[in-house]
Design brief:
alpha+beta, Nuclear Transport Factor 2, Chain: A, 44% strand, disordered N terminus
């Protein structure tokens, strides 16, 4: 239940994100990014309520990391190849979205280490737990 609430909060906050300039990001948050991801390139910032999201590339992978105002990591999202999603997710998509392809896929890890997966299909973000069980759909 806690996970569901966190996933819901994250989804809602993503809908309310606003792009912000690097100069408007607190130095403690920028320092946390540099400390945890020293090889991050092409960093773009967004403000989500009281949190700051850094979108960046690192070692040819796309990352999105959500920090609180004190620089603590709230959530990390790494774009992955759809073929690496758990088999249950691929089966769910094939059965519920026949003929549709997964446009983007991501592995999401929250601050407590809980892993979830996201698959974007036909303009909808589908969220799944670590084992590939469907949790909910969020229209994009």
């Amino acid at each position: 239940m806690l996970f569901f609430l966190l996933a819901t909060a994250a989804s809602i906050s993503l809908a309310n994100a606003q792009k912000i300039a690097n100069k408007d990001v607190p130095s403690v948050v920028k320092s946390a990014l540099q400390k945890n991801y020293p090889n991050a390139t092409h960093v773009k910032w967004e403000k989500e309520k009281d949190n700051y999201e850094a979108g960046f590339e690192m070692i040819k992978e796309d990352y999105s990391v959500l920090f609180d105002a004190s620089g603590k990591i709230v959530e990390t999202e790494i774009e992955i190849n759809a073929t690496t999603l758990p088999a249950n997710i691929l089966t769910y998509v094939a059965q519920n979205f026949p003929g549709k392809k997964i446009k983007e896929a991501a592995k999401i890890t929250d601050a407590k280490g809980m892993i979830t997966y996201e698959a974007e299909v036909d303009g909808t973000d589908l969220l799944f737990d670590r084992s590939g069980t469907f949790l909910k759909a969020v229209k994009g």
